[in-house]
Design brief:
Elements (H helix, E strand, L loop, with lengths): L3 H13 L6 H10 L1 E10 L13 H4 L12 H5 L4 E5 L4 E5 L2 H6 L4 E9 L4 E9 L3 H5 L2 E6 L8 H13 L3 E2 L8 E6 L23 E6 L6 E7 L6 H25 L17
Parallel strand pairs: 3-5, 6-7, 6-8
Antiparallel strand pairs: 1-2, 1-4, 2-3, 4-5, 8-9, 9-10
Helix pairs in contact: 7-8
Length: 275
């Protein structure tokens, strides 16, 4: 999996021409009309597509958040487009780069680009995967060390130490009371946290340490990465993965805090963070 921080650096570099946007670069972004947008990539409803192919003002900005389901497959074949849906702002934007948008379909993303207010279209400069809202809103975490024999047994203690020093989440001993489950394993997550009957029965070779942040109610993988560090490096790999997750969560929270909602089309106008 692509390291999110590296992707963010490349995204910022593509706009600023430097490793990360500094204050001067941030001001320059505003002058160029570049913005940061956050939301979920989905297909727009057929009724929301205007004559020019962009979401119509009436269709895209009325109703309540969550009331914009994806197009049906029949409608999609007739020309429906991928859009960025920001439920928080109750806004929908057409995306200029449909091919890249399709690759992120269904995922939450951070988009860098400029907004054409006449058509509600974002001219996409770059796009990276973001975190679903439930991650930022989570308070309680359950740590689950799945398929953790031998050296992998160090993962749970290392995770407890890292999360205790972070002091961001309450650690609970019952997954039913958790908002998120942190799964550590020597095998890739199969998306079967809810349906699996008992522990992972796949053979275990402690060569890679995997971390997945999972919705305890659906089993959906909300975030995941790995380190090709096994055996005696499991504890270091665990702490490194939590540090990566923490950095992404902190960066996205800072983007939200810097965003200044304004008039139609001006929302989330914050540039990517300064270092």
């Amino acid at each position: 999996m692509q390291n999110w921080t590296s992707a963010l650096v490349r995204l910022a570099s593509a706009i600023c021409g430097v490793a990360l946007c500094v204050t001067l670069g941030a001001a320059n972004l505003h002058a160029q009309g570049e913005q940061v947008f956050k939301g979920q990539i989905t297909r727009c409803m057929c009724s929301d597509i205007g004559a020019g192919g962009a979401p119509g003002a009436a269709g895209a900005r009325t109703g309540t958040p969550g009331a914009l389901p994806a197009c049906s497959m029949t409608c999609a074949k007739s020309g429906a487009k991928y859009v960025l849906r920001d439920a928080k702002a109750n806004a929908v934007y057409l995306l200029s780069n449909q091919r890249k948008s399709k690759a992120f379909a269904g995922q939450y993303v951070i988009v860098m680009g400029s907004l054409d207010k006449a058509t509600d279209t974002i001219e996409v400069d770059n796009m990276v995967r973001g975190l679903p809202p439930e991650v930022a809103q989570a308070k309680a975490v359950f740590i689950y060390c799945d398929a953790c024999p031998r050296g992998m047994a160090k993962a749970k203690l290392a995770a407890l130490e890292a999360l205790a020093s972070w002091n961001r989440f309450d650690l609970v001993d019952d997954p039913a009371k958790a908002n998120l489950v942190f799964i550590f394993s020597a095998n890739p997550y199969l998306g079967d946290y809810i349906t699996r009957d008992g522990p992972d029965k796949r053979p275990v070779s402690v060569d890679i340490t995997y971390m997945n942040v999972v919705d305890p109610h659906t089993g959906a993988n909300l975030w995941g990465d790995y380190r090709q560090w096994g055996s005696w490096r499991v504890a270091s790999a665990t702490k490194s993965l939590i540090a990566e997750f923490r950095e992404q969560l902190d960066e996205e929270n800072a983007v939200d805090q810097q965003s200044v909602p304004g008039k139609h089309g001006d929302h989330n106008s914050s540039p990517i963070l300064s270092n």
